[in-house]
Each structure stands twice: as C-alpha cells, then as structure tokens.
Fold this sequence. Notes:
This protein has helices at residues 16-42, 50-83, 87-116. With 117 residues, the chain is mainly α.
Amino acid sequence: MAVTPRSGSSLASLGFLRLSLYGLAIIDMAIPACYWLLETLTGSAIDQSLVSIIATLVTPVMAPILLVVILFDYVMSRIRVADEKGDLRAYYLMICRIELLLIGIMLAYWIPYFIML
C-alpha cells in the first residue's frame, strides 16, 4: 500500500503517529523547562512530588529513547526519499527536514544536562 500525502495542511499530512512522536519530544523538553521556571519564580525548591519526579527523573530518561525513535524514523524517511519520485519524494524530504530540526533542538536542549552529570 503506497503512502500518499494528504491534501490540505502539511501538518495534518504527517499522520497521527508522527505528530504524536513530535509532540512527545516537545513535551519531554517542556516539562523540565516549566519545572525550572516554577522553581525560579517561587524562589524555592519544590518538594518531592509527582511533578518534580517526572521533571527530574522521567524526562531525562525519555530523551535518549525519543531521540533514537526520531532518528529511526528519519532513516526510514531517507530510504523512502531514495525510492520515490515527484510529490512523494518532496513529502518525505519535508519529513526529513522536520525531523532533523527536532533532533537538533533536542540535542541542544539535552546535551548540557547530560554533560553536567
């Protein structure tokens, strides 16, 4: 079954699973940033709560996993670029560009955290 880009918004043409993956990656970066902002604005450390556990333990663990999954999707999209012609090739090139942008943002966000360990 051939995948064809859907008409309409290019965002909707990415599909539910790809958009969910991108959303999880963005949420994975947003939770620690919001937690840090909340700590900064209140001026004190937040006690051990579910929010602090998720922000300090779960999201750093999920970052490399999400990065590998996005990299895998990038590789699969590059394979499809080599096989397709015309509109499908442009569609998969757009996906590759979006994923490279997201990978770059994730690396820029998480590398300082892992270096500090």
